[in-house]
Amino acid sequence: MALRGWLMAITVALIVVSLGLFLRRLNTIFQVMRKARPARRGDHLGERFKSLFTNVVLHRRMFRITYSGVLHYFIFSGFVVLLIDIVETIGEVFFPGFTVGRILAPLVDIWVILVAIGIVLALYQRIIIRPARFHGSDEKDAYLILGMIGAIITGIVIHDSFYPFVAREVFHVADPVARSHFLGYALSGLWRALGWTGPRAASIGYTVGYLMDLGVVFAFLAYLPYSKHLHIFAAVPNIFVRNLGPKGELVPQPIEDSMAIRTFQDLTWKDIHDLYTCTECGRCQAVCPAYAAGQPLSPKMVILELRDALNERIAWGTVNDPTQPALAGGVVSAAELWACTTCGACQEACPVFIEHVPKIAGMRAALLEDGNVDANAQKVLVSWDRQGNSFGQAARKRSAWAKNIDVPIKDARKEAVDWLWFVGDFAALDPRVQRLTQLIARLLHHAGVDFGILFESEVNAGNEALRLGEYGLFETLAQKNIKALNQAQYRHIFTTDPHSLNALKNEYRKFGFHAEVMHYTEAFLTLIDRGQLAVEPVGLTATYHDPCYLGRWNGITEAPRQLLQRLGVNLVEMPRHGAQSFCCGAGGGRIWMDETGIEDRPANQRIREALALPDVRFFVVACPKDVSMFSASVTAMGVEDRLRVVDMAELLAVAVGLPDVAESDLRSFPNEAGILS
Amino acid sequence: MRIAVLMKDVPDLVEELEVEDGALPLDDMSFVPSEWDDQALEEALLIKEETGADVTVVAIDTGEVDGLMFTALAKGADRAVKLAGGFSRRLANRQRGAVLAQYCQTQGFDLVMTGVQAIDDLDGQIAGWVAGNLEVGHASVVRDVRAGADTVKVVQEYSGGKMAELELPLPAVLGIQAARKPPRYVTVAKVRQLQKTASVETVDVSEPTAPTLSVRKIYKPEAAGHAQMWGDDVDEVSEKIVNLLEDKKLLRS
Amino acid sequence: MADIVVVGEIQNGVVTDATQELLTRARDLATARSRSVAVLAFGKDAEAAVKTADADEAVVVVDQAVEEYNPGVYEATLVTWLTENPALLILLSNTTMGMDLGAALAARLQIAMIAYCTDLRIEGSSELATCQIYGGKLAAEVELPDRAVVTVIPGSWAASGRSGIPMVHRFNAQPSPISVVKVIEPDASGDVDITRADILVSVGRGIQDPDNLELADELAQAIGGVVSCSRPVVDAGWLPRSRQVGKSGQTVKPKLYLALGISGAPEHLQGMKDAELIVAVNSDENAPIFDVAHYGATADILDLMPALTEKLNGRNG
């Protein structure tokens, strides 16, 4: 009886101490969350549970990297099965004769094997494969945790192997499941051979196993919230409270004072929760275009820097001390923050739904309020404020592209139109893109579409102003556009610019503007499918680049592909496509910023990705910024003869057979591609 | 130290300038702060950061100067003063200089700073007019203003890249060529917030009696010899440049 | 007492081209209206420099205090002399000195002021000035009032080359509390001298990003020239001041001036419009640079630079 009493006492002590430490830590974090800004994440419960199922039980995002997905699934499920072992083991001691039955018991052993495999795989990954995404992560902690998990599963097998002897000799109860714990049973053969089956030897052996299992479990419990492995507890709730609003909506509510993030109180409680959910897997870092370009930004490090600063301030009781370094420019450097293209690949990759971009945008806002902004970006901000466009051109020039073409373009402010076209800055004012804009006007005219534009009443949509952290300017621009849009009469609205699309569709909701805004690829798909636009297959092989603000932020990946199919394009996908597309490097205001520090432009990397595809001569884009970014890369890399950047509008023009297009607009198509024959 | 920064807004040159009956329809045009005045303000704010000087922005109310003044306040100016007297957009610099000098006289500023020029300085630059009216020392085309207790040191720029460091006793008037740093950005929200919390002081002033220039007409200059244009095609243009170099024997052999 | 006073500038012992231009037009106006011309100049070289000037009278101010330009001393001296000798028309070049003293003199003398003048002429009974305004985008035609200070943009008209035998007398410098602490000569700092280059590849705001300077460097190398720039590029810290062309930089007269992404502010034009051949590329077809350029294009300079470099290298190699 002495053994039971001793084990019961130590178990109770372990529970009280570890749970106490655990809860104390959680409470500290909870207090920080309570002082943080609000975030509404309690709606759509059905969808939230569904998301838990796909992302926790099915591990959907985890399995995007098969190796890690498998090993994580082994270890993750091991934790679930570990509960059976804990109940059984504590039960055995506190309630003599307790068993979990012959069905559950062998599960424990099966999972001990799976977890052991998981640990071996994890060690192999960390020691031999060494993925770059772990760079910057706390690897020591990873080994510590893997060691603890190893100790637990070893403990399980050891105490199971001694339990038959302890049950018989010490507790004097039956052990009907002894053979079910097949690993322990196998090991018990060794003790028999050694003669370690007496009450004394069995007690010692059992205690060793018991402490390796439960002792480590409770030590683990106490240690977890101080380590990155708090994700074991935080991941599930974090996935539950993920953002279910429109993905592309950076700011859900109109902001009264400021969106600037200077202190931890300026983060939302979800942001704080994100920090403790991160387990440093680095999947965000692996997909980040800024990181790939050699810039100082890694989305993972942004989260870790914030978390480490918060932990330090919690330890010193300085969370609310205003003299601590600011988060923006102090904890996270200005260079990191301004490097972000807001492409959202990090958020898309994160298995636990951490939201990096809103934190970065908020910290940018703080930098901006202090006047710490790239000089060129500043010029663009001023131009938006004064002229309403990033080109610093007179507002009246916005419709200059419409002057030299033989297509009547209605003024949607003055007469009702069927389709309202929100042109966007680049499409309207970039000389390289203007000819594409003209093509689209001619295509619409050819299709007999009754369309119009807002002329100089249209201003930049504000998507990038907001992402540069300039909320007030964004709001000013949005209100100007909404005023013009409300005055216009139209049945459908579409835009040539994914960035404008994102703002109109997702960011204007908070000001009461709700319209089904379409991208021009969607609009033309509709026109073709309605029979308004007859197309001849162009018969070429091409790859398609999903713009971040179309594919990832707005989930529009199918319409462009269907359009390509209608146009008779044989699509060869790049490895990174759809929601996993790779940013051209222009987003989030980056297109205007100093490129110092960029070692390998994201757009060049993307072109190399396309060049590696067999037989692909055409790189199809559907975003005005992509036209200029990728054309520049192809020229800079000197691969004009191997790859040609074409806009969807050019393909449409050829497929439709617009007169004089072949001579004027598509003369640089390589003839051997057969497009013009 | 008390610094006055004299600011004004000018037509936005980004807009196409349309001349009607030999004059500019100023009332229909959009205005932006004169870029050199922005430089002067920035330099003054840098001095404020270094020495704790008090910065007052002064503008003559010729229309919509509130935006410019609140922006200056949001950037860090301490006070904004608008001199009102029913002035029109066409107020000439000689008159502006008199009005501004009159006001500065009453305020006893140590340092008066303004842009070295503005795009509409038909009748001379503000710095000279104000200094001449105040009869105090002044220097234009200057930068790198270092304010001491009784004097101010500046760097004046000359042609050919030559420069000189000058020392002027206070009070003094400076026409600023460029600030040490590019003018700072201020967010729209901050300007709006200042519009709610701060105010622009209005001081009534009387119209000076100095005569104005008689401008016969404003017109778009006929390009004396406008360039022969080659269009925008990169290949064509580079071909033409190479041919031209060849013609003029400027190609390296 | 003269009717027209030219405030002269002396450089390297001689009257500057800009001052010669003022003297030329002063004499034209004086002849038509039977008036006299005086030139006033400062420094120990002044007397030798102005003794053959086309003026009726030459006033030289020789004093240690005027050896270097000092706005205080110059202004005090001019105000004193002009008060004693009231003139109808006072001409200054639109240099730093003109920008510095013009309006202040007008204010002190309580007369009118006309700036950025590009032409002075007689039309019937009126005397007219043409002035540049709005960065050279517009011109204004102004009637000269009875008395005025006029600052003239250098190079607005040709100097006649006429000389004269003015009556030379001296005037004392007037004191001022403003002092010249030190003179900073142009910082060559081992950098190339853009005034000696035959070909200048000159870049402006249109270069957009310091990284793009590499394109200009490569082009300059291919073409056998040197990179120069307009003021904004220097202000941004992308190129040293020694590379700046314009009023506050160098005045250049190369065989070819290739202006890339330079809009052509008057201050810049002042420094390069005498180049033998000017080719300007700017996306804005209304840019004033095209008014002084011989050839122009609206191509994108970021595309053009590498394309041109390639063409040139193709020929050279």
Explain what you see.
The complex is a heterotrimer of chains A (677), B (253) and C (317). Helix content of chain A is 55%, strand content 5%. Chain A is mainly α and 677 residues long. In chain A, helix 26 (624-637) links the parallel strand 8 (618-621) and strand 9 (644-647). Chain B has one domain (2-204): Rossmann fold. Chain B is built from six helices and 13 strands. Chain B has helices at 35-51, 66-75, 93-107, 126-134, 188-197, 234-247; strands at residues 2-7, 9-11, 31-33, 54-60, 79-84, 111-115, 137-147, 151-157, 163-169, 172-178, 201-204, 214-219, 228-229. Chain C contains nine helices and 17 strands. The interface between B and C is large, with 88 and 97 residues.
Average of pLDDT of chain B: 92
Major β-sheet annotation of chain B? 9 strands, mixed
Overall pLDDT confidence of chain A: 93
Quickly name the level 1 CATH class of the largest domain in chain A.
Mainly Alpha
Order of strands side by side in the largest beta sheet of chain A?
A: 1-3-2-4-5
Key descriptive features of the protein:
heterotrimer, B: 253 residues, alpha/beta, Rossmann fold, 29% strand, C: 317 residues, 9-stranded mixed β-sheet, 5-stranded parallel β-sheet, 9 helices, 29% helix, metal-binding (chain A)
Describe the structure concisely for a colleague.
With 677 residues, chain A is mainly alpha-helical. Chain A has 28 helices and 9 strands. The termini of chain A are far apart.
SSE layout and pairing:
The complex is a heterotrimer of chains A (677), B (253) and C (317).
Chain A: H1 2-35, H2 45-57, H3 66-94, H4 101-129, H5 139-171, H6 182-194, H7 199-223, H8 231-240, H9 269-277, H10 283-287, H11 289-292, H12 299-316, H13 334-339, H14 345-349, H15 356-369, H16 375-386, E1 410-411, E2 417-422, H17 425-429, H18 431-446, E3 451-453, H19 463-467, H20 471-487, E4 490-495, H21 498-507, E5 517-519, H22 520-529, E6 540-544, H23 548-552, H24 558-566, E7 569-571, H25 602-611, E8 618-621, H26 624-637, E9 644-647, H27 648-656, H28 661-664
Parallel strand pairs in A: 1-3, 2-3, 2-4, 4-5, 6-7, 6-8, 8-9
Helix pairs in contact in A: 1-7, 1-9, 3-4, 4-5, 5-6, 5-7, 8-9, 9-12, 18-27, 22-24
Chain B: E1 2-7, E2 9-11, E3 31-33, H1 35-51, E4 54-60, H2 66-75, E5 79-84, H3 93-107, E6 111-115, H4 126-134, E7 137-147, E8 151-157, E9 163-169, E10 172-178, H5 188-197, E11 201-204, E12 214-219, E13 228-229, H6 234-247
Parallel strand pairs in B: 1-4, 1-6, 4-5, 5-11, 6-10, 7-10
Antiparallel strand pairs in B: 2-3, 7-8, 8-9
Chain C: E1 4-7, E2 10-11, E3 14-15, H1 17-33, E4 37-42, H2 46-50, E5 57-61, H3 71-84, E6 89-93, H4 96-109, E7 112-123, E8 126-133, E9 138-143, E10 148-152, E11 167-170, E12 179-184, E13 199-203, H5 213-223, E14 226-229, H6 231-235, E15 256-260, H7 266-272, E16 278-281, H8 289-292, E17 295-297, H9 301-316
Keywords (chain B): Electron transport, Transport
Domain Electron transfer flavoprotein alpha/beta-subunit N-terminal (chain B): 21-207
Pfam family, one (chain B): ETF
